[in-house]
Amino acid sequence: MKVLKTYPEKCISCHVCESTCSSLFFKEDNPELSCIQIHDETNPPDMNVCNQCQACVAVCPTCAITVNNQGVVMISRNLCIGCLMCVAACPTNSMRTAFGKHNPFKCIACGACVKTCPADALAVVQE
Amino acid sequence: MQRKVLAEYKYELKPIVRGYNKRTLYVNVGDKVIKEKPVTDMMIDKFVGGKGFDLYLMWHGVNDNTKWNDPENEICIAFGPLCGNTSYPGSGKSIVTTISPLTGIPVDCNVGGHFGPYTKFAGFDALELQGKADEDVIVFIDGDKGIVQILSAPDKVINSHILAEELHKEFAGSEEHLQHVSVVSSGSASDHVLITCLNFSFWDKRRKVARLKQAGRGGTGTVFRDKSIKALVVKYSGLSVDKNDPADLPTLQKTGLKLHKEIEVGDADQCRMHQVGTAHLMEIMNDYDLLPIRNFKYGQMPEAEGLHSREFTKLFTQGMADGCWYGCSLSCCKAVDNFKPRTGPYKGQPVCVDGPEYETAGGCGSNICVWDPKDVVEINFYCDTYGLDTISFGTSVAFVMECYENGILNKERTGGLELNWGNADAALELLHQMARGEGFGLTVGQGVRRMKKIFAEQFGADPKFLQDIGMEAKGLEYSQYMSKESLAQQGGYTLALKGPQHDEAWLIFMDMVNNHIPTFKDKAEALHYFPMFRTWFGLQGLCKLPWNDIEPANNAQTDEPAKVPEHVQNYVDIYKAITGKPMDKHELIRQSERVYNFQKVFCMRMGGGRRIDDIPPYRAVGPVTEEEYLSRQERYDNLMKNKIGVDPTGKSVAEKMEITRRYREDQYQQLIDAVYERKGWTPEGVPTLEHLKNIGMDLPEVLEVVKRYL
Ligand code: SF4
Ligand code: SF4
Ligand code: SF4
Fold first, then answer.
1. A12 close to ligand 2 (CB < 6 Angstrom)
2. CATH classification for the domain delimited by A2-121, as one of 1.10.10.60, 3.40.50.150, 3.30.70.20, 3.40.190.10
3. Cβ of residue A63 lying under 6 Å from some atom of ligand 2
4. A13-52, pLDDT tens digit by residue?
5. Cα separation of B516 and B347, whole Å?
6. Chain B residue with the nearest C-alpha to that of A77
7. Beta bridge partners of B413
8. B472-473 vs B126-130, strand pairing mode
9. What is the complex's ipTM, to 2 decimals?
């Protein structure tokens, strides 16, 4: 299973990963639209991102959520009707939503943020 | 399947504006007329949508003398402005109305499945069916292309579990579209008897079957088949979160997500809807002496342990997305997969059975003493596929079993069936007879009211006894709760406009267990508020369950926990978010009051709606037989002493029963007085002109009917 791994003790809370992610998927530098979330109220910060646990797969009424052959949980925008049941079902609050947008979104372990993180606090690994 | 196009209508596809299409679809299957009708601002202001539109259209489609099987009788199916949103749990309901073969007045059913929302998104706020076809037809609405057709239906099958599946496949065209089709159908019993239903389908993508939800009450299936309609089919594949054109999508999403999270956290400890659906009530009702047993004689028996919800939990496939519409995280639509019936035409064939829900487990289980959950599942399966209402079936069978016990019926009279308590084989045989149109099943399928007449006239049974034990009012069979010890619930049942169904008011715990509404005034207030609040779901196209079958964690600390104030506010918020119109908790009740009173006057127009129609059989009020009295003697004796103020010592059981009866019947009459007054009606149950004016339901056609009764 391919998964984005986080190393909070290395994270310097620069939020570059959030910019990278939201710019890539939404063409907008907006932490609200990033699949990875850095909550820096704590030390080390809380780095919230999907761990590909698949808990959301079973709740989707249109079977829009599937697991690809690398073990990554994917949402089909074609099938998704935006009910957000998957958002409530995610045990780690990593299925993300921005109110006003039609579909939820989540980390697909693409690794774009890994490349821009200046502190080596992220890695895509096989588990 | 080769189908002839008997009529075709092309319409312009237009987006919905703030929850409304502002047009309805009229289909006359007799004259083969298909047309659209505009929705006026007056209709929206006064009738809102859903049941309101149904009743408004039907009022103008029928006349004062229309009977259920007259061609002008209509089946109306409407959806409501909030219907079809995918954000808030429980938002996919259709409301079906018709002049009922059982009651002769309008009946209304709130039903899940995808037909309603898809028809709404296909472009219509309601569907109005009229006329009688001279051959079997299918009405097909293609919401992708903007075409409505009346098609010939030479299909051999009629039973829903097969027909729905075949039509899904035929009209989907390809596998990816299976979920974009929905079918309304009935079954073979609807060709022969009156206690029937309509099945509304949705395609279950994981199970790969058509699931069936029932518009259960009042014989809608019989009217459907009398019109020679074999099925309604809709196709729509453009669903997304904004299809209702909400004024404020973020608020709609936020409110829905809040409830999703509440359900995610709370359901497993509260009602376990996701695990076992409404069947979680079985042991609760038994514990509180409220589960109907032996035709509502008793509310509790040790045998009921066999129907404990844990038994159903074992039968239901767990962990599925069991919502009857997208976005319902309460997901109460449980199913038994790969069930193999042991009787009938589908014996041994694996089938998927929807439910049993509580009402079915009560009616087709405890009330007739069938204690094996698998027998209940089998009765449930055949009721659905034959198009029979499990509630009316259960209550009707309970009635004939009690008649059998009392010698009113015997083997000669039943054509050889031994209708002893608990004889599941006999109950199943009755079902198969209804489907084949033969034998004693034909009699039972007429429902309790007609059976009372038949047994008195043909078998010389005592009409008074039959009246006491026959659990119907207005011609409709009671649903499955014991109301004997809750005066408020006796009202909740018997004052319900369509007949004794619990969807207007369920006050037993409030009244009997928690004693929160002790006075007549309190009870009358509850019998005003809750029916009005619950009517609103039917105006909007919503499900009642996510209102109070899940509660916020702090609900008990609020000022009115029974109303679930936070959820009431959710409804206000999503109404505003979709329609963009102002709303608060008072206007919400007002919207309902207008339609509720319109329905009341509609009943009067059809010859019902009088005080005498609001009288329950005594079985719903107190102990009819000595064994019933003796089984709870301590309770009844204590009540006599403490409430009636009569010392029971030294009195015979017969005397005590008479005293109890006089007291209870008098209490019930006093309750009606209080409720009528609170509702703005005369002591005869007629809405006053002043009240109609106050609530804004003083339309000339309404006043014209009311004046006949004042
Ligand atoms: S979004 Fe949540 S539930 Fe879904 S795979 Fe990721 S962590 Fe698991
Ligand atoms: S929001 Fe989309 S992906 Fe999530 S459960 Fe609903 S339909 Fe499936
Ligand atoms: S609670 Fe049950 S009946 Fe109501 S909408 Fe949800 S799944 Fe359907």
1. no
2. 3.30.70.20
3. no
4. 999 999 999 999 999 999 999 999 999 999 999 999 999 9
5. 50
6. B240
7. none
8. unpaired
9. 0.96
